[in-house]
Design brief:
By secondary structure, the chain is an alpha/beta fold. It has ten helices and eight strands. Helix 9 crosses helix 10. This is Patatin-like phospholipase family protein.
Length: 270
């Protein structure tokens, strides 16, 4: 975010993607809208659902292509816990997704730099992954505590990075000229809670939104669809709707934000 740089030079644009389960599909819609208008990213940072999205876009898949992969592989159902399970279940079954679609399994070989985050359960601190094996780092970032067994990497136990920071903007600060944040956890006002699942989801959203404004303030542009409050983190049947909500919000951001307009005009002129 260095405004003193020559405005004629291409900007390094960073993108931060929050966690949010199925609601994270909205990130794909946001990215598709931005990319359709010529906006490209030099660095993507994400946690949980945002980490998965970051990896596939950085590999070169379009957001629409990754949406189709999600539907074809039933990825969200694979990540959904079994309600009849008597104990923690393994998230390692999702490892095949990287093996099949990103076979080099390497941060360094991605076409765009990405950062994913997870929490070191033993040391109680947030860890950023930027190199090495991609599959285990992504699974660690998605590993909801209390549902999935922790992912062990080099003797350390890791769980979902959203516990400590569900909107990992910090890796982009100082490394990008413009930071766009996509957050999928807008908290609507409600007057009743209809089920235990709704109660758990609501409580989780309140917790992860508690320091959201701190991270928003690190962004130059924040895109936060307000139509996602009715979707749960395991709402696997609504991915097309969620994608379109994100896409429409991305278009609104381009139309309503002067900095994004400037970038789009520059891309068209160049």
């Amino acid at each position: 975010m260095n405004s003193s740089k020559d405005q004629s030079q291409p900007k390094k644009i960073g993108l931060a993607l929050s966690g949010g389960g199925a609601r994270g599909v909205s990130h794909l819609g946001v990215m598709q809208a931005l990319m359709d208008h010529g906006i490209q990213f030099s660095h993507i940072s994400g946690t949980s659902a945002g980490a998965i999205g970051a990896a596939f876009i950085a590999e070169g898949y379009s957001p629409k292509e990754f949406l189709q992969i999600i539907k074809d592989t039933r990825l969200l159902k694979l990540l959904r816990p079994s309600l009849g399970s008597t104990g923690l279940i393994s998230i390692l079954n999702a490892r095949f997704l990287i093996e099949k679609y990103i076979p080099h399994n390497s941060f360094e070989k991605l076409k765009i730099k990405i950062t994913t985050s997870a929490v070191d359960l033993g040391e109680g601190k947030l860890i950023y992954f930027t190199e090495g094996d991609l599959d285990m780092a992504i699974l660690a970032s998605c590993c909801l505590p209390g549902i999935f067994r922790p992912i062990v990497i080099n003797g350390h136990m890791y769980v979902d990075g959203g516990i400590l920071n569900n909107f990992p903007v910090e890796p982009l600060v100082g490394n990008c000229d413009l930071i766009i944040g996509s957050s999928c956890n807008h908290l609507p006002v409600v007057t009743e809670i209809k089920s235990f699942g709704n109660l758990v989801d609501r409580a989780a959203m309140i917790a992860i939104n508690s320091n959201l404004n701190v991270h928003k303030n690190l962004c130059d542009v924040v895109i936060e669809p307000h139509g996602l409050g009715g979707y749960g983190i395991f709402d696997t049947k609504a991915v097309d709707e969620i994608f379109m909500i994100g896409y429409e919000e991305g278009l609104k951001a381009i139309e309503g934000n002067e900095r994004l307009k400037e970038i789009v005009l520059r891309q068209k002129a160049g």
